[in-house]
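Review session, final week

We close the course with one last complete record, chosen because it touches almost every idea we covered. It is Lactobacillus pasteurii CRBIP 24.76 WGS project CAKD00000000 data, contig 13, a protein from Lactobacillus pasteurii DSM 23907 = CRBIP 24.76 with 148 residues. Go through it on your own first, then we will talk.
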Amino acid sequence: MLKTKEKYLYKNDKRIFYLADTCWGAFTSVEMPDWRYYLDTRKAQGFNAIQINILRQWDSSLPINGREPFAITTREDGSYEYDFSKINEKYFDNAVKMLEEMKKREMIPALVLLWGNFVPDTWMSHFVKNNTMLFEQIKPYITYVVNN
């Protein structure tokens, strides 16, 4: 567990320098063999943390087939819409497996629970049509993630 004392960051009571890479779309777009290779490479390069979006980022590449956090409807024009009331448990189970690979390498996951494109009336929400969570949908999602 990370702790802060004064102006320093500690892990297991030892002061650390937080050196993170970002792999925002890891949970949606990276297969396990590639994930292991990526983690091994970053670990060898001295990184001790990876920053990841739990949900798909608004400007992301297409996810691997079936790798969506919620039930999804894809339209003919390629746009999509989530049903935020239907969590895809397989997606989150895979995310847990990916986090377990980080733990094996003693790397710190820095998880972004909710990128701004999912929050109504943010500047980013205007780039993705029909895909923002209603405020009453945010709490059940956050509760699910935190408890699982």
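Two points worth writing down before the exam:
The longest strand covers residues 80-87.
The longest helix spans residues 89-104.
Good luck, everyone.
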